[in-house]
TrEMBL record:
SMART domains: Zn_pept. The lineage of its organism: Bacteria, Pseudomonadati, Pseudomonadota, Gammaproteobacteria, Chromatiales. GO terms for cellular component: extracellular space. Its cofactor is Zn(2+). Belongs to the peptidase M14 family. PANTHER family: PROTEASE FAMILY M14 CARBOXYPEPTIDASE A,B (PTHR11705), SLL0236 PROTEIN (PTHR11705:SF143). This is Peptidase M14 domain-containing protein.
Length: 855
């Protein structure tokens, strides 16, 4: 044995037999005083999850990597530890700060690592981050939470103490604790507190009992029980409430939510598998919280390992200074100290010896992957549950025989606490006729395993029931409904989900045409009561529908506001009766006007001047649509769709965003890339108006459409007058050497021509121009001497017509025949310059397909 090793051994011997009686003790795999019965976990310096525990450096590296991998992860330094180490917090959510409906997001907050020895805690909080990033793009639970909830995490609060435990993964001191010196190991692997008043050196014997229990340092119940006033005690509360820099960092992290939008808080601890839930004098809040923890407990028990978490209810307005008490009392939200497994038997749960109760803080390495992944899901479910109660968002009825939309309704979210109900009846419903109802909700509603709808883990078989009927007042109208088909494919109505997988269903139905039903319908229509669908169901975690979507359910003063039920009970929901129908016995022709060539025009939402659609209905039952709009930064954007005409609908299942072409003589068609952007559907109520639904760039929306232009030779009513010769030029035109950009031409009924040019700028970004002109006297040239472009507005719900800036771009001259033509341009903007094209026709308009003689 070397001299250095001998001296080191003597030093350890002296330390373990000091005047204070303290002695060094080690956790071991074998049986003994601190025997575990399984290998002592040793942290590994890796960022990736594995069957074991990561070092703090590995965990921090993982957090930073996730922030680089995903645009849903943002982070910042929110404070410093007692020893000056940076404390990071992260927010996980979709970009922006609004839901797809345009409303402020709610928030949940998870903290980890407040007690240094509880290694499970930082792992499961990190696991939640990993789950949210890995699930990005699932169009289901993860995407819903990211769209509607700001998930804020502070993975390691007590960094100083955590590092000391990891530097001493097996050793600690015995016979030194002020309460139970022989049985309670302190410092090293069993350090709980921060490092206030210590030098952080495990072998410095005079200060290893120092430090503040960060989970006793919080109002409103600081200073807490008497023992927390003893500085050497395991639970010393600190010199004043929120005195510690780690707690100040937690408060700063809450600001990322922001704090006034919080709906749930949990401080992740170990061990005992318990929710130490905070109960306040707000009884409604307490009841909502109890239902939440019951839901989480049932769900977690159904996951691999079947671990049961118990809700341990505190006395009302009594506490000991915990973080969960602070958030529960101040913000009146469900809040808990969430104790991770094992249960109260500690290591015995995994076949351990159970020689010392502190072994529960040392989870076997073989268990942490399951614990991490299961709790990440359950923590995600908590965010889903508190995001908002479900409500009916949209519904429509299709006539099976014709494929036409005959009725449609939706709730349009406004900035305030109300929603606007938009009900569009295109044709009355008729008894005895076959229909299909499509209905969508505000969140994913059903769970699948192996492709089949099954109860959400932890819920009963009856939880997937859906009750649907037609009624007026208290009278049910006889109708035959088939089984509901929940939809997990994109596309929107009538065959796909709305925003998320299984947020919508479709169901076949026929209203009875029995004589007594016909008489009942006539009697109802003669009175003042309306007829409506009634639907009763619940979301994944058991929240019933908001019975009145007109008043937006929201968290307010520690309970749900305007979460309505038919019975008037609070915070529970019920059946929705908002979907009013036009049902008649003698309705005449139940059909609707089909889409045809006359619908080829420019269509706009009158409240959104500066964007719109150019629609071309083709002779083969197809249609082409060009949506000219703006991106999220206010630059021009255009989307292209081609799809079938189905009765009174045009369906663009795949909207494309062409990018990459560079304007001018250097244009290369091979550089053009058609990026998938979403889907859209246009529904026309008649020749003059309709609406369109879209799903694109993370948003969904329904907007009205009004006709802006009327094409030459295209009449809404019957006409025996042949179209003028030039009307056949209506359609799309392009230069084959510039495939990927082109023009749409519309000769209007006033003799003028409207041209849109869909192209790119010099950097490959999308660009569009618009010009209106007329043919020149004595020849067939078309002169557009005031071509405009636009910028400034934002895409989707952020669109504001006041932000649209129209500006002069230049001029275009065209000369068109029936199949070929030419175009030249002169821009006022130097980056565009001048040039010319040789054009070919790309599309014909239905009803305008015959070239005049000589063309």
């Amino acid at each position: 044995m070397s001299r250095r090793l001998i001296l080191g051994s003597l030093a350890l011997l002296l330390l373990s037999s000091s005047a204070f009686g303290q002695r060094l003790a080690n956790w071991t795999e074998g049986n003994g005083e601190l025997g575990l019965g399984y290998p002592v976990p040793i942290p590994v310096d890796t960022p990736l999850p594995f069957d074991g525990f990561r070092t703090y450096a590995g965990l921090h590296s993982r957090h930073q990597d996730l922030m680089l991998q995903s645009d849903r992860v943002s982070g910042e330094v929110v404070g410093q530890s007692r020893n000056g180490r940076e404390i990071w917090a992260y927010r996980l959510a979709a970009s922006g700060d609004r839901t797809p409906e345009g409303l402020p997001r709610s928030a949940v907050f998870y903290t980890g690592g407040i007690h240094a020895r509880e290694w499970q805690s930082p792992e499961v909080v990190t696991g939640l981050m990993e789950r949210l990033v890995a699930g990005q793009g699932d169009h289901f639970l993860t995407d819903f939470v990211a769209d509607h909830v700001n998930v804020v995490v502070l993975p390691v609060m007590n960094i100083d103490g955590f590092l000391q435990t990891q530097a001493n993964p097996s050793r600690n001191w015995l016979e030194t604790d002020n309460r139970n010196p022989q049985f309670w190991p302190r410092d090293g692997r069993m350090r709980r507190k921060n490092l206030r008043g210590t030098d952080g050196d495990f072998f410095t014997t005079g200060d290893h009992l120092a430090g503040v229990d960060l989970n006793r340092n919080n109002p409103p119940f600081w200073p807490g029980p008497p023992e927390t006033g003893i500085q050497d005690d395991l639970t010393w509360r600190g010199p004043s409430a929120q005195s510690e820099p780690e707690i100040q960092a937690m408060l700063a992290a809450a600001g990322l939510a922001p704090a006034d939008r919080l709906r749930f808080f949990a401080d992740m601890h170990s061990y005992t598998s318990v929710f130490f839930s905070v109960h306040t004098s707000n009884l409604r809040r307490n009841a909502i919280q109890s239902r939440l923890f019951s839901t989480l407990s049932n769900h977690h028990a159904a996951l691999p390992g079947n671990r049961v978490y118990v809700d341990s209810v505190s006395s009302i307005d009594v506490g000991i200074g915990t973080t969960s008490e602070y958030f529960g009392q101040l913000y009146q939200i469900p809040s808990a100290t969430w104790e991770i497994e094992p249960g109260e038997n500690g290591a015995v749960d995994y076949g351990g010896f159970g020689n010392n109760g502190h072994d529960g803080f040392i989870l076997p390495e073989s268990e942490i992957r399951r614990v991490r992944e299961n709790l990440a899901e359950t923590m995600l479910v908590a965010a889903y549950h508190m995001a908002d109660p479900p409500h009916v968002a949209m519904a429509e009825v299709v006539d099976v025989a014709t494929g036409a939309v005959v009725w449609s309704a939706h709730w349009d979210d406004a900035e305030n606490e109300m929603r606007d109900f938009v009900n569009q009846s295109l044709a009355p419903l008729v008894p005895g006729r076959a229909y299909e109802l499509w209905m969508a909700f505000s969140k994913p509603m059903r769970w699948r395993e192996n492709g089949q709808v099954v109860p959400f883990p932890g819920r009963s078989a009856s939880s997937i029931n859906l009750n649907l009927w037609i009624e007026s007042g208290n009278d049910v109208i006889a109708a035959d409904f088939g089984p509901p088909e929940w939809l997990d494919q994109a596309g929107g109505a009538p065959n796909g989900y709305h925003r998320y997988r299984d947020d919508a269903f479709r169901i076949a139905f026929t209203i009875s045409d029995a004589p007594e039903t016909l008489a009942q319908i006539d009697e109802i229509n003669a009175g003042e009561d309306g007829i409506h669908f009634t639907v009763l169901t619940s979301d994944l975690t058991g929240n019933l529908l908001d019975a009145n979507p007109a008043t937006r359910a929201r968290w307010e003063d520690g309970a749900w506001a305007d979460y309505d039920s038919a019975s008037g009970s609070l915070d529970s929901g019920g059946a929705d009766r908002s979907l009013e129908l036009d049902l008649r016995v003698a309705a005449g022709d139940p059909g609707t006007e089909a889409v045809r060539g006359v619908h080829s025009a420019m269509w706009i939402d009158p409240d959104r001047g500066g964007e719109g659609w150019v629609i071309e209905v083709l002779p083969d039952g197809q249609a082409v649509g060009y949506w000219f709009t703006y991106d999220e930064e206010g630059h021009p954007r255009w989307l292209l769709g081609q799809g079938p005409v189905v009765a009174n609908q045009i369906r663009f299942e795949n909207l494309l965003a062409p990018v990459g072409g560079r304007f001018g003589p250097g244009f290369d068609p091979d550089e053009v890339e058609l990026l998938p952007a979403g889907s859209a559907r246009l529904v026309f109520s008649d020749c003059e108006q309709g609406w369109f639904d879209y799903r694109a760039f993370g948003q969904t929306q329904r907007l009205p459409l009004n006709r802006l232009t009327r094409g030459l030779g295209l009449d809404c009513g019957p006409s025996d007058v042949p179209p003028p010769d030039r009307a056949v030029q209506n359609g799309s035109w392009f230069d084959p050497d510039h495939a990927g950009e082109g023009y749409t031409v519309q000769w209007l009924d006033n003799g003028q021509v409207l041209v849109m040019w869909f192209s790119y700028d010099a950097t490959g970004q999308q660009y569009w121009m618009l010009g209106q002109g007329e043919s020149q006297a004595g020849d067939d040239r078309i002169l557009l001497d005031n071509v405009l472009s636009a910028r400034g507005a934002r895409f989707g719900r952020a669109f504001d017509p006041q932000e649209v800036e129209l500006f002069d771009w230049g001029s275009i001259e065209m000369q068109l025949g029936c199949e070929t033509g030419s175009a030249s341009y002169q821009s006022l903007l130097p980056e565009f310059g001048s040039g010319d094209f040789e054009l070919l026709r790309l599309s014909y308009i239905d009803g305008l397909t015959t070239c005049p003689p000589g063309n």
